[in-house]
Amino acid sequence: MSRLVIVSNRVADLRAGAHSGGLAVGLADALKERGGIWFGWDGEEDGTTGAEPQVETIGKVERIAASLSAEDLANYYLGYANSVLWPMFHYRLDLVDYQTEFSESYWRVNETFARQLMRFLNPDDLIWVHDYHLIPLAGFLRQLGCRQKIGFFLHIPFPPSDLLSAAPEHTRLVDALLNYDLIGFQTQTDVNNLRHYLVESATAEQLDENTFSFGDRILRIDRFPIGIDAAGFADMAIEADDEVVMDQMRRRILGRRQIIGLDRLDYSKGLPERFKAFGRLLEQHPELSKKVSFLQVASPTREAVDAYADIRIELETLTGSINGRFADFNWTPLRYINRAIPREVLAPLYRGSQVGFVTPLRDGMNLVAKEYVAAQKPSDPGVLVLSQFAGAAEELTEALIVNPYDIDEMARQLHRALEMPLDERRERHAALRQKVFQQDARAWLNSFLNVLEGAGAAPAKDLADQVLPGERTAQSS
Ligand code: GDG
């Protein structure tokens, strides 16, 4: 079995326990089994780009932590990655803040990372690069002579061809992607979007539905919907601490149900629309007064980016106005927590909430939707209300699927979720649960690595069918 080399923006803490979060733990387990490297930024905010990376050996795994200067962090990470690529890939061209120094830093940091990583690679390593921060990495590795198989997984959406074409540097970005052997996306929509771009721009020749050739390279594009450690999360949900248990008992006594939302505080998550939908529900159903409350946890991220500061102010204003209008001396309809809560608290909180309200305007997958399903009690489960624009909606079709821009529709579906009879809740949840447990983190990881291991070769049928340049005219005329 080849060694595995994982590259992500931030190197994971390989000593952290299972309670620290699903994805990093799943990838770290795969690394520990196969042996290999995890390479990424060390998380320090005042380093020196290009300084000798720190190497720590843990069993068969080398953790290589690279340093970044404060300036590169501002330009490469907050700038290009999070003020250009993040909004662009979430269909928000209006929020793209393109600056030449962002771009210069982005490509240079990737080149530096490639040079640093190259020294540690073995000839038959399997390299797996994660996310939009590192699109150019394979191109720079190839320039340095890297012949190993390199896969790329995009955790966020990939925009439609028309939208991408309006963005600065789109040709350079797509050309950089073509240096990978395998590109994995969360959804079929993302796969189709890159496929259309490649076909329309004639950037690469299509060999079959998922395979393209570009110069002497063969590229495969496919869908690998990411999953969670469903069994582990379900177990965590059962072990509630005393405070969570008491909160649930109190609500049960008062006959009060809870809607829950949990997100990083990000404009892509549709939080203002979600708050308004809850306000609309209370407005249209006065009988729900004191009978339902909405708990939204929104942990702060990327606060140095203006668009994130703006959304925070908007949410505080909305919370104030909804509570001001509907609250009573013994009932706060909307509780908004603007900080992270521990994972072992959030799992039982999901379980104790009758509705999971997950309504991003655009999301690669959305793991919260899957965590909510995994945490439910199968005999008396809650209902998932899910945006049609979350990648998860492609799989979780038994959720109540909503348009996150349509406030009335969301209010209606919230009401339907609160009123849903037990039989229907059980039926929908059983179907959802099966999908979440089947397509879990381990299945996702294995399927990506299996395809990457076989990648780089043209599909047999197409090679045989491939028409040589001179033959094409003869056959078609
Ligand atoms: C990107 C893509 C894709 C959130 N608040 C707290 C907390 N969380 C945890 C959740 C969940 C994770 O963070 C969020 O995952 P999402 O998938 O919802 O969203 P992104 O962070 O935007 O992730 C996304 C994902 O990559 C994976 O490919 O699904 O589409 O945007 O696990 O539970 N965890 C704790 N406290 C919090 O307050 N402990």
Largest sheet: 10 strands, mixed
- Strand numbers in spatial order across the main sheet: 3-4-2-1-5-6-7-10-9-8
Helical percent range? 40-55%
- Give the low-confidence spans: 462-477
Mean pLDDT: 92
Question: Care to count the β-strands?
Answer: 16
Query: Strand portion, in percent?
Result: 15-25%
Whole-number count of domains: 2
The termini sit apart by 49 Å
Overall CATH architecture of the largest domain: 3-Layer(aba) Sandwich
Quickly give the structural class: alpha/beta
Present as ligands are:
GDP-alpha-D-glucose
> Radius of gyration, Cα only, in angstroms?
24 Å
Put simply, the count of helices is 18
| Full CATH superfamily name of the largest domain | Glycogen Phosphorylase B
Classified by CATH, the class of the largest domain is Alpha Beta
Structural write-up:
- With 477 residues, the protein is an alpha/beta fold.
- It folds into two domains: 4-227 and 441-476, Rossmann fold (3-Layer(aba) Sandwich), CATH 3.40.50; 234-438, Glycogen Phosphorylase B (Rossmann fold).
- The protein is 45% helix and 18% strand.
- It is built from 18 helices and 16 strands.
- The strands form two sheets. It has a ten-stranded mixed beta sheet, sandwiched between helices.
- Helix 11 (306-326) links the parallel strand 12 and strand 13 (334-337).
- Mean pLDDT is 92; it is low at 462-477.
